[in-house]
Design brief:
Blueprint lengths: L1 H29 L7 E4 L2 E5 L2 H6 L1 H19 L3 H5 L2 E7 L2 E2 H14 L2 E13 L5 E13 L7 E16 L2 E8 L17
Parallel strand pairs: 2-5, 3-8
Antiparallel strand pairs: 1-2, 3-4, 5-6, 6-7, 7-8
């Protein structure tokens, strides 16, 4: 009896996890969006915990959201220069730096014609002077080499910390931290930007 109940609970969890993934993919590629999400286009979406606005204050919150919006726009339009301008010259992600992040984005942009992204973010920390913020983020980056093909997962991430700092009056990504794991094409674990 115990094994049967445990087996059914495991199946129920798998159904819920698979169902959630299907809903995310369907909403990304069909343009369906949750009303609370900030949308760049039909296939890029971001949900930010509403408490972040209270913690950061309206001005800082708007500046940080503009940073993420600019990143999404650069990815959607494959504007490598605009995207790399959002990285700090001091960017670090394990063994990666700004140069290797650029190489990874070049490979992604050259391989995929169509991409879609969804992420959920929660403010983790903010410095007292509000010149550094840490967002904990989970999300998914999908891509298709041909718009007629089914998309594949380029990257996915769970509870990654995205650390932004204000440099010269502009927000820059200085690092991304979280559990290491292998990803498509990478000989070293890497989660570029999102």
């Amino acid at each position: 009896m115990f094994l049967r109940i445990h087996y059914m609970n495991t199946i129920n969890r798998l159904v819920i996890m698979c169902g959630a993934s299907i809903v995310i993919v369907a909403s990304i590629f069909t343009g369906t969006a949750n009303g609370a999400e900030h949308q760049l286009s039909d296939i890029y979406s971001m949900h930010v915990d509403p408490a972040a606005k209270q913690q950061l204050g309206e001005q800082t919150y708007n500046e940080v959201m503009a940073f993420f919006h600019s990143a999404e726009k650069a990815i959607e339009t494959k504007d490598l220069e605009a995207l790399m301008a959002l990285y700090s010259d001091n960017y670090s992600d394990s063994e990666h730096d700004k140069k290797s992040a650029r190489e990874i984005w070049e490979r992604i942009f050259s391989r995929f014609q169509k991409m879609a992204m969804h992420h959920n973010m929660k403010l983790g920390k903010v410095s007292s002077d509000k010149n550094m913020v840490v967002f904990q983020c989970s999300g998914l980056l999908l891509g298709a080499a041909d718009p007629k093909e089914r998309p594949i997962t380029i990257d996915n991430w769970t509870n990654q910390d995205h650390v932004l700092v204000k440099e010269g009056g502009k927000w820059k990504l200085i690092g991304t931290y979280g559990p290491e794991r292998k990803r498509l094409w990478f000989d070293k674990p890497m989660h570029p930007l999102f």
